[in-house]
Specification:
alpha/beta, 2-enoyl-CoA Hydratase, Chain A, domain 1, 15% strand, binds ligand LCV
Length: 259
């Protein structure tokens, strides 16, 4: 549990990302700690979970740990990748998981907040979807998370520009449910959690599972799936993918050449 804090308040599970020196990057170790906390809360049948960063964190999470991305010739977001395991754990948690966001959110962490059942943020929050900056061929389930939450044109702008969206814009387009003052953020989230807990948990849980099943009920033929996987492989086998990762680690802008 070194990288997250776990606590229970009023029967609400609270997971706090707490690895400030790595800007809460979603390393496999951080992901294992979050999943372990979710499993523990599930065993105690806690009806609602809040996922937050430590108070004062400038960055809620810097996204996938770039140092753990394969350098080339391997799918960076395969089914058993740590980020993908985390997103499925959030979706399968028995009750709502509420992301409480103070600070900037990047890449896979943006997908994480979009996979949570609700997002409550303060005006320090921003949301950037970064595959195009990292040379990464994002995956079908991840793209579908954004399609389910946002108008197509907005989702495309986020993916194609990789630019951070400030909190006010995130509220306008529906990334966040509520934009509240920093000093009220956590209590606001607790109040929503308490309201949910005052309702029938049997009903809440079965409705959450229906949202999960229906939001994934997206027809795609085996041929189309295999074609997309082939297209994605061309990207993660490319110079541009390797160059983006290398440039990030060398702290310089990438030089893409489309090959
Ligand atoms: C490992 C990091 C990271 C990091 N991993 O502080 O969605 S996808 O497909 O793109 C997916 C693959 C994904 O999620 O990719 C990652 C997307 N994340 C980002 O694009 C954010 C990258 N980070 C930044 O832009 C900056 O670090 C921000 C703006 C978050 C904070 O900038 P600031 O100047 O405050 P530094 O950049 O100096 O970062 C502090 C340390 O954290 C490391 C970074 O390399 C640096 O390490 P050193 O202290 O060793 O120099 N770091 C930051 N993000 N995602 N390591």
């Amino acid at each position: 549990m070194a990288l997250v804090q776990k606590e229970i308040q009023n029967n609400i599970g609270i997971i706090t990302l707490d690895n400030p020196k790595k800007l809460n990057a979603l390393s496999s170790e951080m992901v294992s700690d979050i999943i372990e906390a979710l499993d523990d809360f599930s065993a105690q049948k806690l009806p609602v979970v809040i996922l937050k960063a430590a108070v004062g964190a400038k960055v809620w999470s810097a996204g996938h740990d770039v140092k753990e991305l394969p350098r080339k010739m391997r799918d960076p977001l395969s089914y058993y990748d740590s980020l993908e395991r985390l997103l499925r754990a959030i979706e399968k948690y028995l009750g709502p998981v509420i992301a409480v966001v103070h600070g900037s959110v990047w890449g896979g962490a943006c997908d994480l907040t979009m996979t949570c059942d609700m997002v409550i943020a303060d005006d320090t929050a921003s949301f950037a979807m970064t595959p195009a900056k990292m040379g990464v061929p994002y995956n079908l389930t991840g793209v579908l998370h954004f399609m389910n939450r946002l108008p197509l044109n907005i989702a495309k702008e986020m993916f194609f520009t990789a630019s951070p969206l400030p909190a006010k814009r995130a509220l306008e387009i529906g990334i966040i449910n509520h934009l509240v003052p920093e000093t009220e953020l956590f209590d606001f989230a607790l109040n929503i959690a308490k309201t949910i807990m005052s309702r029938s948990q049997l009903s809440v849980e079965v409705i959450k599972e229906q949202f999960r099943i229906l939001s994934k009920a997206f027809p795609i033929s085996p041929a189309d799936f295999e074609r997309v996987q082939g297209l994605r492989r061309k990207v993660y086998d490319s110079h541009d993918y390797e160059e983006a990762i290398t440039a990030f680690l060398e702290k310089r802008p990438p030089k893409f050449n489309g090959k």
